[in-house]
Amino acid sequence: MSTQSTGSAFSRLSNHLEKNSEGFGPIRGTLGAGRMGMIWLAANLVVTTLLTGTLFVPGVSWPLAVGLIILGTAIGGAVLVLVGNMGTRTGLPTMSLTKGSFGLRGSFLPVAANVVILMGWSWVQAMLAGVTVNFLVEQATGFSNPILFSVLCQLLVVCLAIFGHAGIARVEPWLALVILAFMAYIFVTAFTTFAPSEFMDLPADPELGWSGVAVLDVVIATAISWTVLSAEFNRLAKSQAAGMIGSGVGYLLSTVLAMVLGATTVAYLVLDGGEAVAFDPTAIVAAFGTPLAVVIFLSVMATNTMVVYGMVSSVVNMVPSSKVKFLPTALVLGAISIVGSTWLALLDQFTSFLVLIGSLFIPVFAVMLVDYYIVRKRHYNKDILRGTGGDYWYFKGVNIAAVAVWIIGAGASLILTYSVPSPIGATIPTFIISAGLYLGWAIVAKRIVSGTPTHSHLSDSESPANADSGRRAAR
């Protein structure tokens, strides 16, 4: 009897969460440009983006770092906005859209890579929150156990992702205003303590191993890391203009502010006679006080909740209909994310982690953009909701050409990063190579659609359930 009750309670909870999650299939958005801008502003005003800025100074000069942050954010943001617009036009999340170019089964590969990347992000953010909480507790009591606090922070994140993601999505834009206010306080403190000219004249330290090209690559890779969730967010927009303007302005503003703040805080510490400690939240908390620690903790909780939810969404949308349930998927992925948050050594490999993201996903997004905007003329039809057959079946469900371009592009990125440095970095050449190869294949294979297909949002098409029923009947 107890077992039945437990099973019944689990089933009721699972069904409740299934109804309140986006689940499988397209959704039609209702949000305007202002609301979309706030969502993107809030999403990237997070400690990881801020601390990424701390990596650059004094490896390069402060003004060069600021200029490259703006340039790299604009370049990477263009990819983010275009992929996000695919979500607005179709109603599908990012990884579901890979079915159009990689095939209904070939898309499993980028989905798996996406889950690995998002899992890594969730670990990093949990660790940063845990390290920050541990710093405060140690200051107050002398007790120190960063692994314990990282696990507790990630446990809270998983609970929020399962039960409170909708509430976090509503609260996050308002939290962004609090973060902006505290960022303004730090900027004012920095530039009233030291003159702007002192920041401009702070000498670079080449021995730290940074160059302008390396900074540009990391900034672009940061945008690429957010692009894996761009269609998830932008399919909530009521129009293309709302999605593109909101995401473009929100992402550009939040990233530039957060990264420049990171570069400024390190420059401030150096000018104040301190040591430049990169990617360490405790250094800036010690300099600017406990309120900053509270802001860091809250921002990580909000953003990491959406990251974990994005992982679950990617897996749930991997197969047609609702065969993969939200709650069991969330519990499994959540458990892995909690265990992984104990791996604090990952924080020392953050730059390599960003390079890996760029290597894996720049070719993916190059293929997606060429396929959707050039080859398919900005139209995916309802066959993308099927499990087998149709326009996106290619060869046994896999577009071998897309997979081959992905492998070549990822290999080129790693070679340009570690073996044969390029004067313009690795990210831009990787995108050009991948896009060019896929477009060349499409031309040779005569895959480019003639004319201009009539656009329709996929929520107006046949439902996934009906598509699946038809497929089973055809068997």
- What's the number of extended β-strand segments? 0
Helix/strand-derived category reads mainly alpha
Query: Stretches where pLDDT falls below 50 for ≥5 residues?
Result: 1-6, 462-475
State the major sheet.
Answer: none
In what range is the share of β-strand residues? Answer: under 5%
Q: What would CATH call the class of one domain?
A: Mainly Alpha
Radius of gyration: 23 Å
CATH topology of one domain: Hydantoin permease
**What is the CATH superfamily of one domain?**
Hydantoin permease
**Average pLDDT across residues?**
87
Helical proportion, percent range = over 70%
Shape category: globular
Order of helices and strands: HHHHHHHHHHHHHHHHHHH
Total DSSP helices: 19
Description:
This protein has 475 residues and is mainly alpha-helical. The protein has a domain at 29-355: Hydantoin permease (Orthogonal Bundle), CATH 1.10.4160.10. Helix content is 72%, strand content 0%. It is built from 19 helices and no strands. Helix 4 (62-90) packs antiparallel against helix 12, helix 4 packs across helix 16 (350-375) and helix 16 runs antiparallel to helix 17 (400-418).
